[in-house]
Amino acid sequence: MENKLPNRKKGSATNKVDARSVVVIGLGRFGTSLARELVKGGREVMGVDADERIVQSLASELTDVVQADTTDEAALRELGIQDFDSAVVAIGSDLESSILTASLLLQLGIPQVWAKATSTAHGRILEQLGVHHVIFPEMDMGKRVAHMVSGESLDYVELDKDYVMVKTEAPELFNGKSLAELKFRSQHGVTVVATKKANGSYQPSFPETVIETGDLMVVAGSTKNVDEFCRMGL
User: Fold this and answer.
1) Largest CA distance in the chain
2) Hey, is 197 helix, strand or coil?
3) What's the whole-model pTM score?
């Protein structure tokens, strides 16, 4: 396949970039959203995609945006990809390109490679390649929304394989009691990290913190314990 090497729109591909630099490969919905958020956070972001129309549409938003075939090692080297400390493979539909791109990034020695997986099998292959962080955006969002739709929590974040943090509303049965009295950690195996009163802001939780009906609570613990805890008020 002929590789059309792009001209970088800003900066130089040969300059060493700092640790705050990230290359995002694949500028679909997920990749574009990720790249924009990284820019908002003050990161230097280079976006790469095979579609020239997408590249042109994001030219004014990212630090750099280029068109390239990321399954071509020579193209990656010419772009200076090897100088980035972090790379995200956000290619979704083309599994072959996703896997080949991730493999090349690892061969180039990028310290932190993240890759989007669209299925368990896809994720397993990426892990076997040695990808440092395999992410499942659709699956993770499905879990998160399911907990919200069911009424178990207002937000749900999986921090590790069996450790989650949720935002939930305090039911009436907790009203007027302190965390010391409620004994959530000893009786339910969860920790209330912070609480928020109506029209207030989140505050760190202490044993003397008194819970009132409708307070928002940020609760952390094992998936099983947190799920059971959130169902107490249903």
Assistant:
1) 70
2) coil
3) 0.65
Asked if the structure places residue 6 within a domain, the reply is no
Structure tokens at 54: 């997408």
Give CA separation, 40 vs 34, 35, 45, 63, in Å: 10, 9, 10, 11
Q: How many domains does the chain have?
A: 2
Parallel, antiparallel, or unpaired for β 133-135 and 112-116?
parallel
CA proximity to 22, closest of 61, 62, 51, 60: 62
118-177 pLDDT, tens digit per residue, is 888 999 999 999 999 998 887 776 666 665 666 667 777 877 778 889 999 999 999 999
110 and 208 inside one domain: no
* Rounded CA separation 94/169 (Å): 41
For residues 182 and 128, state if they share a domain: no
CATH of the domain at 209: 3.30.70.1450
Cα 21 versus chain centre, distance? 16
The answer to whether residue 90 is domain-embedded is yes
What's the rounded Cα separation, in Å, for the pair 33 and 20? 18
